[in-house]
């Protein structure tokens, strides 16, 4: 077994923009928004399996807003639930700033095709 990867057939990826200078707390909040938003759009079957397996989540980074939009389109083409997060602008960044993207939960083999090239956060 390679680092336990075979244990998880489902996962969720949380992708944050690396070009924004966000505090650790702000990044965590944006990732949480992305996680919940994408989870709410997942099928009941995918939700159940992901929860049963332990809710694997992977935090990744993308270089720009454009990269998040491109990932969103690819995920939607694969039928994977997504949630693009646009910040309200109350704290660190201007209103309307796109900060994060949640992808899944869905089958890991599908998500890996979409996000496999991205570095860990």
From TrEMBL:
The keyword Iron-sulfur does not apply. GO terms for molecular function: peptidyl-tRNA hydrolase activity. GO terms for cellular component: cytosol. It catalyses: an N-acyl-L-alpha-aminoacyl-tRNA + H2O = an N-acyl-L-amino acid + a tRNA + H(+). The keyword Hydrolase applies. It comes from the Archaea. Transmembrane segments: none annotated. Keywords: Hydrolase. Its EC number is 3.1.1.29. The natural substrate for this enzyme may be peptidyl-tRNAs which drop off the ribosome during protein synthesis. Belongs to the PTH2 family. This is Peptidyl-tRNA hydrolase. It comes from Methanocorpusculum labreanum (strain ATCC 43576 / DSM 4855 / Z).
């Amino acid at each position: 077994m390679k680092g336990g990867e075979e244990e998880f057939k489902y996962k969720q990826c949380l992708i944050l923009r690396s070009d924004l200078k966000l505090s650790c707390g702000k990044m965590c909040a944006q990732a949480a928004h992305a996680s919940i938003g994408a989870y709410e759009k997942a099928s009941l079957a995918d939700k159940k399996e992901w929860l049963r397996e332990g809710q694997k989540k992977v935090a990744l980074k993308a270089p720009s807003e454009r990269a998040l939009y491109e990932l969103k389109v690819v995920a939607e083409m694969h039928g994977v639930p997504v949630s693009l997060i646009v910040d309200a602008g109350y704290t660190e960044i201007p209103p309307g700033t796109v900060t994060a993207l949640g992808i899944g939960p869905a089958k890991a083999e599908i998500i890996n095709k979409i996000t496999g090239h991205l570095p860990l956060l």
